[in-house]
Amino acid sequence: MTKQQVLVVLKTKYFVLPVVILFVVIIVIGLYYSRISDEIILPDDSSYRITGYTDAVDGGNTEIIEEGIKDSAFYYRFQLKKGFVSPYAGFSIHPLRDKYIDATQFNRIQFCLKAKGLDRLGIGVYTVSNYSEVVADNESLYHSYLDVSDEKVIYSISIDELKHPEWWEDLYQINETNKKKPDLSKILHINIGSAYSPDLNEPKDLILYSITFSRNNNQLFLWLGSSYCLFVLVLFMFSYFKIFAKKKVEEIMVSYKPVEFEKSNSNTEQKCVDFINSNFQNSELSLELVAKETGISQRRITSVINEQFHCNFKTYINRIRINEAHRLLSQTDLNMGEISYKVGFNNQSHFNRVFKAETEMSPSEYRDNQS
Fold first, then answer.
1. CB–CB of 120/148 below 8 Å?
2. In this structure, how many other beta carbons lie within 10 angstroms of the beta carbon of residue 340?
3. Are the C-beta atoms of 212 and 40 separated by less than 8 Å?
4. CA dist list (Å): 226 to 209, 231, 289
5. Three-state SS string across the chain, please?
6. CB–CB of 109/79 below 8 Å?
7. Cα(212)–Cα(110) distance, integer angstroms
């Protein structure tokens, strides 16, 4: 593969046009997703309600010591106590204005918080149930964990990390065959609470500064970039072989070399082929002229050309002419106009069109590739 051949491929419209179109499409997709604004859930006390909960609904004795808004953050102090087998407490965020939180455009949830007396938190996202036939309260729980510290930190969870907890799957008999993805367009509420903690009867603080649905586009951009590069490479190789690979057609020689063809048992039939090979330079050469000079009918001449060379009369003559043009382009310094007339074309533009149709490159490109 030469530099000149690479330039020929890069200039052809069959390569440039698809590459440019796909590039524009990828840019549009990238701009669309990069312009998606974050959805801030908290602090926004006008659109969302935040309330505390404990294991009291399961017969537990966990106590809420204090809860409320302090310095634009939700402050929650509680004390885990014996009662329920695994004491818990936390708070729940519900939308006020809309019935649901729509997070279909996002792929992660960010939490800015700090915790005292807790090493781990459970994050629960409740959506409208996809299992209405088995879930009585019409909610589906998707869950993950956060390892936290007593410092104010922004934590991030990929939405893909949210899964049904095992106890929920056991309760509603959900398995791999009927497991469904969450309906992110209909999030009912978000819970943040303590995970298992052995330290009972000690006050624990949980301070939440913000919750934000956001979008990380790194994986999307990587996929788009990789797909684009692969497409360009495949298209380039396809275009290269389409232009430069040798065609599997019969070589048609002219009178200065032996003509390659399937020998006919009829000298009369061969007579028309010989006449064409000897007179292809004549721009007036036609089926009628060959028939007149050889005494063979036009129908028979057409049949002989098709049987031996698998093409029609006009294509056969053009291939001979282009084959001779190849030789003149590579072995002489004749200009394009001189060559076109010498091989039988009565104007250069027609020669250029036929040459490109046969070789998928212009005569000048062909000559450049021979150097």
1. yes
2. 25
3. yes
4. 38, 9, 59
5. CCHHHHHHHHHCHHHHHHHHHHHHHHHHHHHHHHCCCCEEEECCCCCEEEEEEEHHHHCCCCEEEEEEEECCEEEEEEECCCCCCCCCEEEEEEECCCCCECCCCCCEEEEEEEEECCCEEEEEEEEECCCCCCCCCCEEEEEEEEECCCCCEEEEEEHHHCECCHHHHHHHCCCCCCCCCCCCCCEEEEEEEECCCCCCCCEEEEEEEEEEEECCCHHHHHHHHHHHHHHHHHHHHHHHHHHHCCCCCCCCCCCCCCCCCCCCCCHHHHHHHHHHHHHCCCCCCCHHHHHHHHCCCHHHHHHHHHHHHCCCHHHHHHHHHHHHHHHHHHHCCCCHHHHHHHCCCCCHHHHHHHHHHHHCCCHHHHHHHHC
6. no
7. 5
List of residues 6+ apart from 87 with CB closer than 8 A: 55, 60, 61, 62, 80, 81, 194, 197, 200
- Number of neighbouring beta carbons within 10 Å of residue 4: 12
Q: Which amino acid, one-letter code, is at 103?
A: A
Q: Is the peptide bond before 43 cis (omega within 30 degrees of 0)?
A: yes
Render pLDDT for 23-64 as a digit per residue (tens, 0 to 9).
Answer: 999 999 999 988 888 888 877 667 888 888 999 988 999 999
- The model's confidence at residue 264, banded by pLDDT at 50, 70 and 90, is very low
Residue 14 has pLDDT above 80, yes or no: no
The interaxial angle of helices 298-309 and 267-279, nearest 10 deg, is 80
Compute how many other C-beta atoms are within 10 angstroms of the C-beta atom of residue 261: 18
First to last CA, the chain: 13
CA 305 – CA 240 distance, rounded (Å): 31
Cα–Cα distance, 124 to 57 (Å, whole number): 17
Give the tokens for residue 47: 């659109």
Task: Return the amino acid letter for 266.
Answer: S
